Structures are given as structure tokens and as C-alpha cells.
Amino acid sequence: MFEPDAEAMPPEELARLQDQRLRALVSRLLALDGLQAQRLRAAGVTSSADVSVVDLPLLPMTGKEDLWKSYPFGMVGVEPQDVVAVHGSSGTGGRPTLVAYTRADLALWARMCARALAAAGATRASTVHNAYGYGLFTGGLGIHQGAVELGATVVPVSGGMTQRQVTLIRDLRPDILTCTPSYAIRLGEALAEAGVAPGEGLALRAGLFGAEPWSGEMRTRIEELLGLRALDIYGLSEVIGPGVAAECLEAADGLHVNEDHFLVEAIEPETGAPVPDGTLGELVFSTVTREALPLLRYRTGDVASLRHGTCECGRTLVKMSKVAGRRDDMLVLRGVNVYPSEVERVLLSSPAMCPDYLLVVDERQDARHLIVCCEYRTTGGGDSPSHGSRDPGVGPLPSAGELQSRLRAELGVSVQVRVLPSGTVPRSEVGKAVRVKRWQDGAAPLPGLD
Ligand SMILES: [Zn+2]
């Protein structure tokens, strides 16, 4: 553990610390007298003495709309000269979300990412191949600072230029890989094409993959392809970036939330009521130690469940499940709610299927239906029909009809399956993979689809 005193803190002590930090946050917000202070007063809170962690579900919430309305820096809680960095996301609908950091915020972020790397087994002797994009997106620089904080050697390769990445991985023999799960697949295929195989040319031991929802089946694929332990890391720029939560090597069955700094709740999205442990809900975070952007009960739109208890790794920090999806990504098909990651789980439970897929929501007629576009797995890289032949080791190939039956049985709704020629589904070189496309009018989103 990078910070054992915090990560394995006895629960009573942690609750006291959270209480104290929540009160400090509420005091600051009231003093800043902005939007969040107005909401607190409207809820009857006029002093920090009125609040405790137990009452957290009664306090007002904030959301992305608040950041948009106060764009760019209306919710920043420090003087402009104290801001040392800005990050954010390009956002949906072209509306960016910007997040400011003070020097102390950057130091906190580095420690959170160092915790995540250490939980994956990284040490000062490690080499971290960091293929998250560097820039406004928090992935690259967050992990970078975490690796430096830990004292490891970081290779800031960023996303894209896959051939150069293959060369660097072969020559520098990193033990830790950090990137999106979809890019891990792309890299694994490229390494296989270049004849760099796990156990021989590769020294990778663990990977921290995040910024996209991904299933346990995808984990198995990545682990086979790269010969490493694939762990999940979670974060969002509004809270701090990657490092809000991460899986440990020992259990690898959920992500420890750094709840000494980010108080977490799971709520029922419609009513706002807390959901019990183990039930999916929308994650809500309070950033109790952030300086530049103090947020009380920020709604993330990410859906996951929480689980309290001490882990076999010794951490007492609450665990969140893998993110099932974003509230906005949920597909409603004839009244049934489906997350793309659930389709992924069913599809990839067949070893013959390639990990790249695209869900096309056909909205050309009144009743929207889902077309699951997928490919059979090939050897020697699945990104080009001219390379690679069908992998003989994957067993019999399920027909589109068989896949449809499985999906109907598991998801409770009928979908169409189209198995397309290898290389049809676009692969992502940088940023997050596109898993869902809407087909409203005009040309089909993929060749061969009609
Ligand atoms: Zn653990």
C-alpha cells in the first residue's frame, strides 16, 4: 500500500475523518456563497455544525449542468492565481467540462494515482508504459504524476502510433501497462502480429485499464492476450481524474474508493434515495479535500454498486463494482434497460468472438432496435482482413442466430446480430472506444450493414 495509514484505516476512525472533512467542505462552500451555498441554505443548512456523514443523503446535489452553466470557472473556489492546471473532458454535445487544480490538488491526485499503481503491484523498480492520452484528458497526466510520485519509471508514450508503442514495449520491457481497455486489446493484437508474445518478449505483470466501462469477459481477453493481470481504475475529471478508485491485485473484484478524500454514495437515479450495498445505483461523490473545485454530492451519471467490508488485501476502503455503464448510455429497448457492457459480457463469453464490437441503435423506424455488429476472432491481429486467419484454437463458431438466442436469454430482449468480416468494426487508436452508434437516416454506420 502506498498510504497504509489511510487505505487500511479502521472504519470508526475513517468515519470520524470523513465527518470532520465533510464539515470543513460545508464551511467552505457556505463562505464562498455560490450556487452550492444557496442550495445548502435552502435545505436548512446554515453552519457546518448542521451536517454529518450520516446525513449526507439529505444534502443538496450538484451535476454536470451546474458546471456547464457556470462555464468556464464559475464554481472554482480559489483565487485565479492559485490555479496551476486545468483539465477536463470534451463532453457530450460539444459542451466541454473544465476542472481547475491548485498545487495541493495536483499533489493529492498524484498520491491517489500512486495508490492505484501500488495496488496493482507497481514499485519504485517498475517501468510504467503509459498509453493514456496526454492533454486536457486526465488519463495521461494523472497516471504520469502517480508513477513519478511512486518513484517508478514512467514512459509517457500517450495514445496512438501503435508500432512505436510495440517497439518501446519490446525494448524497455515495462511491467505495468496503463491505457483504455480497448487500446489494451489493440496493443495486444499489434504485439502478437510483431511476434512479441507473453512470457518471452513481454515482461508485463499488471495493467490499469479505465476511462471506459468494460466487462469481466473483456478482462479475461486482455489477460490472455498480454499475459498480465488486468485491473480496473476509475475516475472522472470533475472529481479529480483517474485514481478516485482502483482494484487491488489480491482480490481484483471491485475498486477501492479513496473515500478518505472522495465520499461516495450510490443512489436510485430517479428518486435520489440511497440504494443498499450490492445494488446498482448512480455514483455520487463529495470532494472533501479538493481546493479548486469543492463539490458536494456530485452526480456522476456512472452506474455501479458499492460493497463495504475489509478486503483480503487489508484495505478497509469501500469497494465499487465495475461501472455497468453511464446513465446516458443505457439503451431502452422495448421497455428493457440494457447497458452496452452487458452485451459485451454475453458476446465475449464465446471465445470465438473478437473483442471489438459496435452496437448500432437502428432508429429509422418507430420501434428502435439494436443491431449487435461483431466479428469472429482471427489470429495475428484482428484489425485487417488481409492479415490473420481464423483462430483454430477458439472452438466452433457460433452462428448469428445462436448469438441472438444467447443475448435474448441473458438480456431479456430481442436483438439482431450481424457477424461482419474481420476488420469492419473500427478500432480506437486514441481516446475512448465508440461502442454505440445511432442510425437515424442515410448511410449505414458500418459497411455491409443494410
Ligand atoms: Zn483489496
Tell me what you see in this structure.
This protein is of the alpha/beta class. It is built from eleven helices and 21 strands. It has helices at residues 4-7, 11-32, 35-42, 64-69, 103-119, 138-150, 162-172, 181-193, 216-226, 340-348, 400-411, and strands spanning 83-89, 97-102, 127-130, 153-155, 176-179, 206-210, 229-236, 241-247, 255-257, 262-267, 281-287, 298-304, 306-307, 319-320, 325-326, 331-333, 336-338, 358-362, 369-374, 416-419, 436-439. Strands 4-3-5-6-7-8-9-14-13 form a nine-stranded mixed sheet, sandwiched between helices. A four-stranded antiparallel sheet has the order 10-11-12-15. Strands 20-19-18-21 form a four-stranded mixed sheet. β7 and β8 form a beta hairpin. α2 (11-32) packs across α3, α9 (216-226) packs across α10 (340-348) and α10 packs across α11 (400-411). The longest helix is centred in the N-terminal third of the chain and has 22 residues, at 11-32. It is globular and about 65 Å long. Residues 381-388 have low confidence and may be disordered. Zinc ion (ZN) binds at residues 248, 250-251, 256, 311, 313, 315. Zinc ion binds next to loops.
Describe, in short, the structure shown.
The chain has about 450 residues and is α/β, with parallel strands linked by helices.
Defining traits:
22% strand; globular; 450 residues; binds zinc ion; single chain; four-stranded antiparallel sheet; alpha/beta; nine-stranded mixed sheet
Uncertain stretches: 381-388
Main sheet properties: 9 strands, mixed
Helical content class = 25-40%
Total helix count? 11
Quickly give the structural class: alpha/beta
